[in-house]
Every structure is written in structure tokens, then in C-alpha cells.
Amino acid sequence: MANKEALRELQGRLAERLQEVRSIEHTVGWLAVECAGHAFLFPLAEAGEIFQPGTLLGVPHTEPWFLGVANLRGALTGVVDLAGFLGLRERIPPAVREQARVVAFNPMLELNAALLIDKLAGLRHADQMTPVVPDELPQPAFAGGRWLDASGRLWQELRLSMLPRDERFLRIIGAE
């Protein structure tokens, strides 16, 4: 008898919790990162695990921003220096390497790729940010919205799901 009551109580709590989850308004959330003094937002649903930069196996004849291949949890993953790819710097300063992290793409994107970023800056939510009206300049497809935080810092959203559609991102072979 006690087991049946406990089971009913558990089912009641689960039903209440499911109702709460359904009623919570889904807010946009990002992983905030910094590269070469610029602030970027990766959608949480598109970002995967975060790793310490480990050993990278260099790949000859590739673009300088393609750092090589790393073994991340048993999967060979191409690692791209985000700041280098975006043209924000040519080489990674040694001081940056100490704080740098590798952010893998979410496995649902089905791309064994990761981005080297200079530093993690935490999590951000849309209710903490103010959207910036887009300007007329052309943007790559992977550039999402721009946002201002409470301190007035500008953040650029980068849609990781759109990076594989960018021809330059996929063309890692360097000029001879």
C-alpha cells in the first residue's frame, strides 16, 4: 500500500514538473567567448563540449587558421583558430594559448570540427542583452545578430550551424 502511495506521489510530482517546464518561456542562450579582443556568442544548442587545447596534429598545405586535427573523446576533429579564420589576427600569441579553449560543435551538427577561442566569457541570455539594429553592410550567412550587454559591450552572434555552409570554412587547403 505504501508503495502505491509513493508511486502516485512521484507521478504527481513528475506531472507538476512537466507542466512547469512546458510553461517556462524558452529564452535564447549563448556561450560567450572572446577572440582577439572581440566578443562572440555561440548558440548553446549548437556548441558542444569545451576542451583544453591539447596536442594538435598539423596538416600540411592547409590555411594558417586551420590548426590541425585533435583527438577529442576518440573522434578526430579539425580545429580552426576562430580569430584567424575571421581575419582578426595572423598568429596566436603565446600568452593567449594559456587561457585558450577548444569549443567543439554539437554532435547534432554532424561536423567533426572545433573552434579555438582565446577565452571563455560565461553564458548570456537574450533577456540580459539589447539587440542592435543591423547595418546595411553585407554579412556572411554564419553571422547572426549583434547584441549589447549591460556594460555597453558589443557581442556578435556566430551561428555554428551555418559555418559548414560557408565555402571558405570548408576550403582548408592553403594557397601554394
From TrEMBL:
Gene Ontology BP term (one): chemotaxis
Entry-linked Pfam families: CheW
Domain CheW-like: 27-176
PROSITE patterns in the cross-refs: CHEW (PS50851)
UniProt protein name: Twitching motility protein PilI
Source organism (scientific name): Sphaerotilus montanus
Lineage of producing organism: Bacteria, Pseudomonadati, Pseudomonadota, Betaproteobacteria, Burkholderiales
